[in-house]
Write the structure tokens for this entry.
Amino acid sequence: MLEVKDLVKKYGDKTAIDGLSFHIDSGEVVGLLGLNGAGKSTTMNCITGYIAPTKGTVTVDGHDILKEPAKAKSVIGYLPEVFSFYSDMKVSEYLDFVCDLKGFPRQQKLRKEHIDRICAQTGIRDLKGRLIRNLSKGYRQRVGFAQALINDPKVLILDEPTVGLDPSQIIEIRQLIRESGKESTVIVSSHILTEIQAICSRIIVIHGGRIAWDGPTEQLLLAGTGRKEITIRGKGDAEAAKAVLAELSCIEQITPLPEQEEGAFDFAVTGAVGRDIREEVFCAFSKAGMPLLQMSSREASLENMFLHLTGRDEPVSGGDEPADAAAKQEGGER
């Protein structure tokens, strides 16, 4: 459905993207991630035909974006991060205007039914008679989503689609994106990595204008650095427990965690690459006569995997603040 091949874009001496190639089939919901200046926005702009690449090709539903721009753009729906409206228009008037822009038939009944369906999909059916300038930021975002769906696109590109939405609206938009992915190719760019994890089945990470990762989301979470991390709680002295762990060659990092129970210790333990350390840890404490009260695998963090791929991973002890701070920088090269 969408094929990007050997894509290069230069701005003078600066290379924004350098030889990107990927293929996305219909029905895939793909997350596009990258640090500031990585090339995400440039890639999306090349895909949508907003800017021309220096080299390479973008093919949308069999149409080259440069050789057949009208045909290629007719199957694309795009919601940019910063979206402009004619604020003095009513919602229905604006969507009717977008129908004109995208060549939707002028038959009044057909168009009204189409706009009604799109408004129902995006949860703005009751707002059709409202002026856009009087809508909240969240509802304006929904109107932006509606205009992206007007032409029933085969390729839907969403840049920060949940920005400004409240939690209930975010859940609804997530579901809408999933439903769109049943019939369309969907590309989602967001700096909220947990959002990408919840929505996308595949992730493409761009770093330095090149692809650092392209694969299933779950595979990225499992792969990462190749290390497994567990948390343990046991009865006994924390220093003695740390000494037990230090004797195990399968362990690379030991991080003390805040005490949760009196007379008990808590640790986060990271194993060597490719090692499942649970059995060895359990046996070591059993041999030492220090019963474990709890053992669990720590949930894989997309933030940590992302930082690892972009060369910014640093040891994190007891919290996610460093990863979260870096993730918030990930708003793209605006």
Remarks:
- Residues 314-334 have pLDDT under 50 and may be disordered.
- Residues 108-122 form the longest helix (15 residues).
- The radius of gyration is 24 Å.
- The chain is about 35% helix and 25% strand.
